[in-house]
Specification:
232 residues; five-stranded mixed beta sheet; 0% helix
Length: 232
């Protein structure tokens, strides 16, 4: 080497690949049987030389087996590789990923496992607004001067523990009122809800409307009926 010149050649490091993580895409909040679940495996090249012909293997406890071959990584590069998993059974399931490269100097970080909960396929929640009755009503009429007490029956196809907003509105030509009630879910079967307006209603024909909305369950149901208030 000529005195006074720098050695610009970088010494090559031993190849060291590592498997960093297994991640379900963030938009997937819950995993269900038979869903197409997209996940990524993150791999890293910890050396200063390009590595080619890497094989990445993934498998699950319920039968997923997939290999991706001929992967290349530039020096010190990180790459996320996508896979699709269709779970076949519910319960805790383990996904395992492993790297295969013969010249890797340290194979201890070439495998990683992650467990995920898989739920049975959930049927869409169905609700139905049933009978809307008014206490003290006789033949579709209610005597004036009495508070309005409405009893609503709601049928639910399953237990549901999400947020629900029930809007009860009443109006006539000269009167309008609206009540919003937030409740926590429904039980499977029949559910009873009560609404009360303490103001005394005057003689008139009224329109009664009930709307049930839950963004958690993707439901929106509406029903109503008319009733008459007559002088005592």
């Amino acid at each position: 080497r000529v005195a006074g010149t720098a050695d610009t050649q970088t010494k090559q490091q031993p190849v060291n690949l590592s498997l960093e993580s297994i991640d379900i895409l963030s938009r997937v909040l819950e995993i269900y049987v038979a869903d197409n679940v997209e996940f990524t495996v993150t791999i890293r090249n910890n050396s200063n030389q390009e590595v080619r012909e890497i094989t990445l293997k993934v498998e699950s406890e319920d039968g997923l087996r997939e290999n991706k071959r001929n992967i290349s990584l530039r020096p010190n590069a990180v790459e996320r590789i996508k896979f699709i998993w269709v779970p076949k059974k519910s319960g805790m399931q383990k996904l395992t990923a492993s790297l295969d490269y013969r010249e890797d100097s340290d194979s201890r970080n070439n495998q990683r496992s992650q467990r995920f909960e898989v739920k049975d396929k959930k049927e869409p929640l169905k609700i139905k607004i049933g009978e809307i009755s008014i206490e003290g009503e006789r033949r579709g009429s209610l005597e004036s001067g009495r508070p309005l007490n409405v009893v609503l029956l709601v049928e639910s196809s399953a237990d549901f523990d999400g947020a629900v907003e029930v809007t009860f509105s009443i109006q006539s030509k000269s009167y309008r009122d609206r009540i919003n009630q937030k409740i926590r879910g429904f039980k499977k079967g029949s559910n009873k809800l009560d609404f009360k307006i303490l103001k005394e209603l005057k003689s008139d024909t009224y329109q009664l409307t009930v709307e049930i909305v839950s963004r958690d369950a993707g439901i929106k149901e509406k029903s109503g009926r008319d009733f008459e208030v007559i002088e005592r």
